[in-house]
Design goal:
The chain is α/β, with parallel strands linked by helices and 404 residues long. The protein contains eleven helices and 19 strands.
């Protein structure tokens, strides 16, 4: 036991030195331990870190396309600088990653096109200023706002507003069901690493969405690929170029792996069911690598979700550490900065325990792939509970990454 503890400590030290710059760049909104005395949420005071999602759409009444900033104005805590916003290049769907709390949602159109969103340009407000409350691990959807330049100057904003849309500002380019090439810059290793170390910045730029490699084809079966920690769709290149494209169409779920895994699984469910309603497909397969296996299993075993996704007909995982990482527990205990995903990745994680207690739907064929030289997942990749559920199991002479 002492030898294993020393091994985990050495791994943590190595990871720290290899990623020290990124570690120190962890923002306060991504730090699970961040406490804020200005937080007022009834009798309880909790950590002020991003833990929930507000989803909706901005609809423009005018023919012109203006850049739009959607702002979640916080009522249950205060910030000297507004940070709970995203910028869209035009009206459309949005996704904002925020802490638990009460908010009023505003939309600001850059009507004069000077790249500055100003108080007199506030052009829309959700339900005439009705506040919304979002809890930890919750997705609040249907927050739709209609904007019009005729509203500019008529909607009161609580304080002076001046958000600059300059070269350092992330423009939200996400969107469920977009067609993207596998070599797109947003899927690069650098962007994927940002999703691990700074999930809040990643969410402002990309959100968490399912991307298509080609136009939707009702005659082909979708195969949804889900990456693991610090991963991206580019992890699946080997599969992409070998997939029988006459029968199957590749889809990719791209999400910031530094956020809570429970929240990632809920976003995946929302995005997947959104596409099913839009296209009406009745069959899809899911393939997941490493941590992506935990995210997908959480969705497939969720008591409210599993009954609504009978169109998932095949499930495959590669090198998934089903009972988590002891190093994540160590990190949560000793690190002074803690990413939200670490909380769900530890072997003491209540989230993983819930996911592993639940059984996969009996009608769903499941296949388990693992690497015999996998030093990352070790024996957790063939946990007996998952092993017994698998219709078949395949072990290869490879490690955690080369299994792909």
């Amino acid at each position: 036991m002492r030898i294993k503890t020393i091994q985990f400590a050495i791994i943590l030290i190595l990871v720290f030195f290899m990623n020290s710059c990124a570690y120190f760049d962890i923002q306060s909104r991504d730090n699970f331990t961040e406490e804020d005395s200005t937080r007022d949420n009834g009798d309880k005071k909790t950590s002020l870190y991003n833990s929930c999602i507000i989803m909706g759409e901005v609809v423009c009444k005018n023919e012109e396309d203006y850049p739009v900033s959607v702002i979640a104005y916080p009522l249950s805590f205060t910030n000297k600088i507004l940070v709970d916003y995203i910028i869209l290049d035009r009206a459309g769907p949005f996704m904002i990653y925020v802490p638990e709390g009460r908010y009023v949602i505003y939309a600001v159109c850059d009507i004069d096109n000077d790249s500055i969103f100003e108080t007199e340009e506030v052009s829309g407000i959700y339900k005439e200023g009705k506040e919304i409350f979002v809890e930890n691990d919750e997705i609040k959807k249907g927050i739709d706002i209609t904007v019009s330049k005729n509203n500019a100057g008529k909607i009161e904003f609580p304080r002076e507003l001046e958000i600059e849309d300059d070269f350092e500002t992330a423009i939200y380019t996400g969107g469920n069901g977009q067609i993207r090439k596998i070599y797109d810059e947003m899927f690069s290793p650098e962007k994927a690493a940002a999703g691990w170390w700074t999930p809040s910045s990643f969410m402002k730029a990309y959100g968490a969405n399912i991307y298509f490699a080609e136009q939707y084809d009702p005659g082909k079966i979708p195969v949804l690929f889900v990456h693991g920690a610090s991963g991206s769709p580019q992890d699946w290149v080997y599969f992409l170029i070998r997939l029988d494209r006459s029968r199957y169409q590749p889809w990719f779920f791209y999400y910031p792996s530094g956020m809570r895994l429970s929240l990632s699984s809920k976003i995946l469910y929302e995005e997947l069911t959104d596409l099913q309603k839009k296209y009406g497909f009745n069959t899809i397969s899911i393939a997941a690598h490493s941590m992506g296996g935990i995210v997908t299993r959480a969705m497939l075993t969720h008591h409210d979700f599993s009954k609504n996704i009978p169109f998932v007909k095949l499930y495959i995982t590669f090198a998934t550490p089903w009972t988590g990482y002891a190093s994540a527990d160590t990190g949560m205990t000793y690190s002074f900065k803690k990413l939200p995903s670490w909380y769900d990745l530890g072997r003491r994680s209540s989230f993983i325990k819930r996911v592993m207690r639940a059984r996969l739907p009996s009608h769903l064929p499941y296949y388990l792939f693992y690497g015999k030289q996998d030093k990352v997942s070790e024996g957790t990749a063939i946990d007996e509970r998952v092993f017994s559920e698998a219709k078949d199991r395949f072990g290869f002479q490879c490690n955690h990454e080369t299994i792909l």
